[in-house]
Design a protein that fits this description.
Length: 902
């Protein structure tokens, strides 16, 4: 007999069929349009080419969105109190009469679908959830929101909650999925919150913060497409594994205008993956480091203590400290970044040297052209260049920061009294005394040419030549540009006494170092030492620890904000070199963009097509570069919106970088202060954000845990209370009916784990490696959990130093479960963790991820790690969606007393 459910399902299937038929039609129409546009040769005029590209881009984007809508096209319906029904889906669709037949989940009218309750039905009498597989309706669940919404025969249909619970209990696939069908009201409110400002989404583990942040990105792109398609959205997540975990959500929602990055990838050209102790990373993130970097830049703008004497042809030229100081002051007053202020410095000193040559030429006055020639000749002299470069070198951020950390004296000068000696020791590569003990080390004349010859050759060299052009022009202005009267006070040196005092105070230490520049160890003013590269053997083995095989420095994620800070103060040498060319190109591009914008307007495609990208395609090589692609390669790109996941981990220095990437400061920051790994972490969002954004942010809280079952949360809540009694864990939305268990090492014999005895051989395990009985217990638990998880995922979570051994052991013992295709190397297997039925990971690597089951190894060891042990334990415990087993030796930490012992 047909039930009411069957009848309803047949009705819904008929409607779904209509929707898919229409989707196919619209896709075919769009495909035809795209084909037509691409085949149309047009008239070949620029205008016809632009028009063609406008249409092609619009059709291609639309087609991509229609394709993304194929799975779960429609997932719900609203019955209004006036008898209307509205279907909600992944995209909006209209029939051939242009009547809407499906509403995009982000449209304002869809809000009621997510927010209506019995108490506040928002004009609805019923909310209906449709479960589908492919193009077939497989289930219906109703939430009656008023008497009219009750099932006609009184039969109780499953509720929307059942749909949610079913979704949450499903085995995990290793990838996050969109949640548009089951978004909860508190989440929907955050997703649709206004975009102008900083929104902090705070909530415990599993409350959907990440999911909400991604859906908010999709909502903002839909709602503000014209702006965000051009500027892009930047999403920053804690690790590459995490980014892979979430990377399908936005494409499944039809959105691609997003750039994903880890903190280690936020500086173009640098992939910072090296590791370092937590206390070093923490210090590098300290706001004082901004001043240290600024100090390092100033330290590279040097004065000689004594007069420099240069033999040039038959002339003896002299650069006294006052002359150099005047040039330096002028350059600093230009308020330009170091590399471009260098032009001012060079111009001043070359003018001075030119004047000296002119004075020494018998017969006196020369015309402007002749003086210009002298300036050019001086600049062509390698020794003179070396001196000037030494006093004010052209620098890349990598050179500045690399030199800072490998030269203890430079670090001491840059830091002044901002860092303690102990802190400086944490930062530096070399033992402190090395450089100081080498008298007469030619810091200026030596370092600068080395810098020019090392990495980034083309850039700095080209910039140099560019400088020279400037100088030739400046030489014509010599008498006024030099401007120094006999008393040495240049005209613009008056005023801003404070500035001058500051300059002097800040420079004293650097100047002392500069003394050694160009001054021989005997201390008398003498010849400039020949440029030389420092002694490569000094501290080489120590430095090697920070460098890769090719001698390149291996950057850590905490270095990235320092590089960015340096780039800000230095300016980009390559950019400086190409400045004029870039300005010219930008002028031309602006004109092209203006024209493209006109065409976009004319065709009524505003908001659907990015005029800038279009202009690029038209003017440059005919390859489409999206805003996201531009943004990824450009440090100066201003994103339209910033999303930061695990925002509680962001250091003050990283905030500085992030706000530079999003100067409009419209951002969604999601995190949980209780999960912070950093020692001394802030206890409130105000404390975390105050140094960078004052009070200008709003905090929204999520309170329901959709991931972790109640039984596991009860255990985790104890850990949270031990961390801070005032914190409360989120309430779990479901229970699974079994409690987490603990198994003591030794209860599983080595012989009980097939292959383990053979794997270990006869040699005893080294003292600092996991014991044979621990390996046996972990392998046993992992196999058991994997069997119960069916197609789902299991994580073995251990302290970092045990991870590699455990990974190698499980790959050998459970080859069908723990080995991922193309990953036989335990060291690189973390990246493939998402694809393996069983993965071995550290707590840091599991941040933001989830698994059907977790095997937590030696929780007591987590508590002794140098990070925040209880916070790490809390993170580890809250990764499971179904089951948790703890493997331990000795005693269980008292905070886990609630576990059932096996
Ligand atoms: N409304 C919802 N419908 C279905 N699933 C949901 C819903 N909200 C959250 N989830 C699921 O709950 C799980 C946890 O979500 P998410 O990872 O976003 O939490 P989180 O707050 O970022 O957690 P953590 O702080 O531990 O990283 C995910 O599988 C997510 O898909």
């Amino acid at each position: 007999m047909q039930t009411m459910q069957d009848v309803e399902r047949a009705r819904e299937q008929a409607y779904l069929d209509t929707l898919y038929t229409r989707l196919d039609e619209v896709r075919e129409i769009t495909r035809e349009q795209l084909r037509g546009v691409l085949l149309d040769v047009g008239t070949g005029t620029p205008q016809s080419i632009v028009e063609r590209d406008v249409f092609a881009a619009a059709h291609a984007d639309r087609l991509a969105r229609l394709d993304a809508a194929e799975g779960r096209l429609c997932f719900g319906a609203m019955d209004h109190d006036d008898g209307r029904r509205t279907y909600i889906g992944r995209i909006g669709l209209s029939d051939s009469e242009q009547e809407p037949i499906l509403v995009d989940w982000r449209a304002p009218v869809a809000t009621a679908f997510y927010r209506a309750t019995l108490a506040d039905p928002q004009g609805l009498v019923r909310r209906r959830h449709l479960r589908t597989r492919g193009r077939e309706v497989t289930g219906i669940a109703d939430d009656p929101l008023g008497p009219l919404g009750a099932a006609p025969d009184g039969a109780v249909a499953p509720s929307g909650d059942s749909m949610l619970l079913e979704t949450l209990a499903a085995p995990r696939t290793g990838r996050m999925h969109d949640i548009i069908a089951t978004l909860q009201a508190e989440q929907d409110r955050i997703i649709r919150a206004r975009a102008n400002g900083i929104l902090v989404v705070d909530g415990g583990p599993g409350t959907g913060k990440t999911a909400v942040a991604l859906h908010r990105a999709a909502y903002l792109l839909y709602n503000d497409r014209a702006r965000l398609d051009q500027s892009g959205v930047l999403i920053v997540g804690p690790s590459p594994v995490f980014l892979r975990y979430i990377d399908q959500v936005l494409p499944s929602l039809g959105e691609t205008g997003v750039v994903f990055a880890t903190p280690g990838r936020l500086f173009p050209g640098v992939d910072a993956t090296a590791d370092e102790p937590v206390e070093v990373a923490t210090l590098k993130g300290d706001p004082r480091m901004a001043e240290v970097v600024a100090g390092a830049v100033r330290d590279r703008q040097r004065l000689p203590r004594q007069e420099l004497v240069i033999n040039y042809d038959d002339h003896v030229l002299r650069l006294g400290q006052e002359t150099v100081a005047r040039a330096r002051t002028r350059a600093r007053r230009s308020r330009r970044p170091h590399n471009s202020a260098r032009r001012v410095f060079l111009r001043e000193l070359l003018a001075e040297l030119t004047t000296q040559v002119v004075r020494q030429i018998r017969g006196g006055l020369l015309d402007a052209d002749e003086r210009g020639q002298i300036t050019r000749d001086l600049w062509a002299e390698e020794e003179i260049r070396a001196v000037l470069d030494g006093l004010w070198p052209l620098l890349t951020p990598q050179q500045l920061i690399g030199d800072l950390f490998s030269d203890s004296a430079a670090l001491a000068r840059a830091a002044g009294n901002r860092l303690t000696p102990g802190e400086r020791a944490l930062l530096q590569d070399l033992p402190p005394a090395v450089d100081l003990a080498r008298p007469g080390r030619a810091l200026s004349g030596a370092d600068a040419p080395r810098m020019i010859r090392s990495g980034g050759v083309a850039g700095p060299r080209a910039a140099d030549e560019d400088d020279a052009d400037d100088l030739f022009a400046a030489a014509n202005l010599l008498p006024t540009a030099a401007g120094a009267g006999p008393n040495g006070a240049p005209p613009d040196d008056r005023g801003r006494a404070g500035d001058r005092a500051g300059d002097r105070a800040g420079d004293r230490a650097g100047d002392r170092a500069g003394d050694r520049a160009g001054v021989d160890p005997a201390g008398h003013a003498g010849r400039i030492p020949a440029p030389r590269t420092g002694d490569p053997t000094v501290g080489a083995d120590l430095a090697a620890a920070r460098r890769g095989a090719g001698g390149e420095r291996r950057w850590t994620p905490a270095d990235v904000p320092l590089l960015d800070e340096a780039a800000e103060l230095l300016g980009d040498p390559e950019e400086e070199a190409g400045l004029e060319a870039a300005r010219r190109a930008e002028r031309e591009r602006a004109e092209e963009r203006e024209y493209a914008r006109g065409v976009v307007d004319m065709l009524g495609l505003d908001g659907q097509v990015d005029a800038a990208a279009l202009a690029d395609r038209w003017s440059g090589p005919r390859v489409r570069r999206s805003a996201a692609e531009h943004a990824r390669a450009d440090r100066g790109w201003a994103f339209g919106h910033l999303i930061v996941d695990e925002a509680q981990e962001v250091s003050p220095m990283l905030w500085r970088l992030l706000w530079r990437r999003c100067p409009g400061r419209t951002a969604t920051l999601v995190g949980d202060l209780a999960q912070t790994a950093r020692p001394g972490a802030p206890t409130s969002w105000a404390e975390l954000l105050a140094p960078v954004v004052d009070e200008r942010f709003t905090v929204e809280r999520l309170s329901v845990n959709y991931r972790t079952p109640q039984e596991i949360m009860d255990v985790a809540a104890e850990v949270l209370r031990a961390q801070n009694p005032s914190l409360t864990a989120p309430v779990s939305v479901r229970a699974v009916g079994h409690r987490p268990t603990a198994v003591r090492v030794g209860e599983v014999a080595v012989e009980d784990v097939p292959g383990l005895a053979r794997l270990l051989g006869d040699a005893p395990s080294p003292a600092n490696e996991p014991s044979a009985s621990l390996l046996a217990a972990v392998a046993h638990a992992a196999r058991r959990e994997a069997a119960a998880a069916d197609t789902g995922r299991v994580a073995v979570i251990a302290r970092p130093r045990d991870v590699l051994v455990l990974r190698a052991a499980l790959m050998a013992l459970l080859p069908d479960l723990a080995v991922v295709p193309d990953s036989v190397d335990p060291a690189s297997a973390a990246g493939n963790a998402l694809d393996a039925p069983v993965a071995v990971l550290s707590v840091a690597e599991t941040k933001g991820l989830e698994f059907d089951a977790v095997v937590l190894v030696e929780p007591a060891a987590l508590l002794t790690e140098p990070t925040r042990g209880l916070a790490d334990l809390y993170v580890a415990l809250t990764r499971a969606t179904r089951s948790l087993s703890v493997v331990y030796s000795g005693e269980l930490p008292p905070v886990l007393g609630g576990l059932d012992l096996e």
